[in-house]
Amino acid sequence: MKSSYRVVCLCVSAIALSFAPASYAQQNPTAPPQGAAIRKASEEVLLDVVVRDKKGRPVNNLKPADFQIFDNGEPKKIIAFRLVQGGEAVAEGGSRTQLDPLRQIRLVTMIFQCGSNDARRLARDAAVGFLKGELPQNVYMAIMTIDRKLEVLQSFTNDPVLLRKGIDRATRSENTDFSSDTAVVQKQLEQMVGPDMSGAQSIQGQISNENAALAAQGRSVDAAAMANMAMAQMVLQMLQSEQSNAGKDTGRVNIFALLDAVKEQYRLPGRKTILYFREGGFVIPQGMEEPFKSVISVANRSNVSFYAVDARGLTTGSANSGATSALNSAARSSQDQMANDGSQAIRPDQAKLFDTGIESTRANTQNTLANLAEATGGMLIANTNDLGTPLHKLAEDIQTYYEIGYAPEIKSYDGSFRKIAIKMSSNDLRVQSRSGYVALPPALAAQGSVLRAYEVPLLTALSSAELPKTFGYQSMPMHFRGGRSQSVCDLVLDVPLANLTFHKSGTDQSEGRLSYVALVKNGSGEVIKKFGNDIPIHVPNAERDALTAGHFIYTEHFDLPPGHYTLETAVLDGGGNRISARKNSLMMPSLSTELTISSVSVVRNMKDKDASTDQADPLLIGTRVVSPTLNPTISKAGNSGISFYLVIYPDKGTSQPPRLSMEFSRNGQILGSGSPELGQPDKDGRIQYLATVPIASLEPGEYTIRFKAMQGTATAEELATFILQ
Questions:
Q1: At 355, phi and psi to the nearest 5?
Q2: With contact defined as beta carbons under 8 Å apart, do 598 and 643 qualify?
Q3: Domain check: are 711 and 620 in the same one?
Q4: pLDDT tens digit string along 147-173?
Q5: Over the range 489-508, which residues count as b (16 or more CB within 10 Å of their CB) and which as e?
Q6: Packed helices 160-172 and 117-131: angle between N→C axes, nearest 10 degrees
Q7: CA separation for the pair 279, 116 (Å, rounded)
Q8: CA nearest 514: which of 461, 454, 469?
Q9: Is residue 81 part of a domain?
Q10: Residue 163 near residue 131 (C-beta atoms within 8 A)
Q11: Which terminus of the chain has fewer CB atoms gathered within 10 Å of its CB, N or C?
């Protein structure tokens, strides 16, 4: 299936607008783990907690009374508590219970991102040292790298030979293009997993179905095979997600690759660790602060802890030297600019003064690794050439930890970040655990998708019994046929900007916010496509009226198999804190080589295509892109005609050319018809038809135009309506 493509435009005059980056956030954990000591609840936060004494030794004899849990500053009662050691759970009284096969699994993902030979050598020695001896039976490891994107060199396995080969490939090869390795792994996983014929909606569901099938046959469950299947499916989801993000610019590579590495791991229970070998950390670019926070939030939701290793080893210089240099540079530029009386040109360093000051706070890149590790319950390993001791602690953390559950008692699921704090009965004890989570309704959290903060109220509105309708907007799905004769859906969202709330910001600016979510659901109610964005809008006060006279038009086209679907959309007026939502029905026609006709678009306007225009966009005609208007109301005073766009797909097996008839009716009464001449099919075998109908002689009312394509004995019809005032 081809990747989707979107076009967003503001149909207004040329106005200077500022669109800030969208914000990202993530949900709290899904279902708590299985086992006698941990009860299953829809509203329960589960923590993996590692406790050490002041000498760094693990402490494994604690009771619930030794812990105090605070959620957003409020003390919470512990409702579930146990110590996990290997494949067993140890209750308060010391009784031991065998964990189920999936909960016994410990996943360790090694990610290498080292450029210099010294860093590669140090990372390799540490990784191989970590593998020395036999891995515990329940520990599975994968080998990945980050260069231009996330690459998988070895999927999860507990075979030391395969893991060493993956480590050698990641750390010894001068070739940093690992795309061929990823392709091989992906093919192997696809062959292993095969198609899901059970119809189950989760890995656990598929495993339950498989177990039931085996039991019906009188065969015992193969726990190892089930675990391997689950891990293979998880990595496939990871690869598919990463491939969709691989086209991002290089400044975002690190953050998006790490996000893709963690966000699919929620699919398996148990403790998961990412051992991230990185040479010197990385800078968080301006505008990427929220996506970086999303990595932490998603890792916490997926129960993944980062153990970040600065592979530079022991360094003699200060980690803050870069920050000091950048800050000094900003200070010198500031002094020079203050001394400038206006007779001298502004230098580039002075023009970038504010940015330089901000970047100085990011120059200690090791802080990024420390934040990533500490916020997810892991630790930073840095400023040492001896990695054996800290990696030994990592091995202990993987196998032995406390599971603590509590009810958060959230009154408002607003998508805000809720901070978790743990206090111990003794000041000599040191705690490692995640820093918090994003509050989402349990039903949304259980979906496992990466949700952003602005999506929470919109998805909540779509799940309500009565959809809110506080302001007007339009949405519509349209159907087309693609170049490979596949079904293509074109989603259109039309929001009148006059319906948004703007507030004055400063002396000469106004600001508002537009957020939207669009869900495409199949006949079973499953979400198969999700789109959305959060757009802050800043406009000069003098140009505000011109802005609000226009519309926000969003279009997205994507392949969609034949069948019945529902389009659900919700729009948030951020300035007025108002939400409206709509639902539309869509029937994608059956695939056929016979005569068909696309949906009809009433044309609002057309714009020139640019470098971002997809040649496969069904709304592209020649060098122009159609911008549709939905539920159009046309004023005779300001328009001389109304334009329509549609596509006819002739039957290539018929020699007769297709014909088109148009039948006009007003308020249900037929006024007349016509048969316009059609052009020749293009290279893809389609006939694009664009026509303008004069309206000067038409009376006000509600009009319907029936478009009927004919070829031999075959016919295909579509309707378009508009109101003339």
A1: -65, -40
A2: no
A3: yes
A4: 878 999 999 998 999 999 999 999 986
A5: bbbbbbbbbebbebeeeeee
A6: 170
A7: 8
A8: 454
A9: no
A10: yes
A11: N
Which single residue is written with the structure tokens 């599975």? 140
564 and 597 belong to one structural domain: no
Any idea what the Cα angle at residue 81 is, between residues 77 and 85, rounded to 5°? 155
- Cβ neighbours for 241, distance < 8 A, ≥ 6 positions apart: 260, 263, 264
Residues 611 and 677 in one domain: yes
DSSP characters for 383-413?
S-S--HHHHHHHHHHHHEEEEEEE----S--
CA distance 53 to 58: 7
Same domain, 306 and 242: yes
CA-closest candidate to residue 149, choices 104, 179, 106, 175? 179
Q: Which phi and psi angles does 31 have, rounded to 5°?
A: -60, 140
Count H helices, E strands: the chain? Answer: 15, 36
| Residue that is last in its domain, among 591, 616, 633 | 591
Kindly indicate the confidence band of residue 53, based on its pLDDT and cuts at 50, 70 and 90.
Answer: very high
Separation between Cα atoms, residue 153 and residue 169, nearest integer Å: 8
* Total of domains in the chain: 4
Within-domain flag for 470: yes
Strands 272-278 and 106-113: parallel
Nearest Cα residue to 297 out of 257, 259, 252 = 259
Q: Is 447 part of a structural domain of the chain?
A: no
Q: Which CATH number belongs to the domain containing residue 540 in this structure?
A: 2.60.40.10
Residue 704 exposed, middle or buried by CB count within 10 Å (0-12, 13-18, 19+): middle
pLDDT tens column, 417-442: 788 999 999 999 999 998 887 776 66
Quote the tokens at residue 74.
């409020």
**CA dist., res. 424 & res. 498, Å (int):** 55
Q: Quick check: is 410 in a domain? A: no
**Highest-scoring range by mean pLDDT, 23-27, 588-592, 609-613, 688-692:** 688-692
Per the CB < 8 A criterion, the answer to whether 155 and 107 are in contact is no
Out of 573, 591, 609, pick the residue that ends a domain: 591
Q: Where does the pLDDT of residue 660 fall: very low under 50, low under 70, confident under 90, or very high at 90 and above?
A: very high
Do 393 and 430 meet the contact criterion of CB atoms below 8 Å apart? no
| Contact in structure between 78 and 55 (CB atoms under 8 Å) | no
- More reliable by pLDDT, 567 or 464: 567
**Amino acid type, 118:** D
Number of CB atoms found within 10 A of residue 270's CB: 19
Which amino acid, one-letter code, is at 17? L
Widest distance between CA atoms in the chain: 91
CATH number at residue 679: 2.60.40.3880
Q: What value does the mean pLDDT take over residues 510-537?
A: 88
Q: Does 260 lie in the same domain as 217?
A: yes
Assign residue 307 the CATH number of its domain: 3.40.50.410
**725 contacts 671 by C-beta, under 8 angstroms:** no
Per-residue pLDDT reduced to its tens digit, 282-309: 777 766 777 788 888 888 878 899 999 9
The tokens describing 249, both together, are: 């610019």
**Helix, strand, coil in percent for the chain, rounding step 5:** 25, 35, 40
Model-level pTM?
A: 0.55
Angstrom distance (rounded) from CA 269 to CA 227: 11
Average pLDDT over residues 175-182: 71
Residue 681, pLDDT above cutoff 70: yes
Average pLDDT, rounded, for the chain: 79
Query: Could you tell me the residue range of the domain that residue 481 belongs to?
Result: 1-22+454-591
Question: Quick one: 580 and 607 in the same domain?
Answer: no
Same domain as 204, residue 270: yes
Nearest to 647 by CA among 492, 488, 520, 493: 488
Alpha-carbon distances of 626 from 137, 553, 604, 645, 692, rounded to whole Å: 59, 11, 8, 8, 13
Alpha carbons 507 and 497: distance in angstroms, whole number: 22
pLDDT at position 266, please?
81
Residue keyed to tokens 């679907």: 565
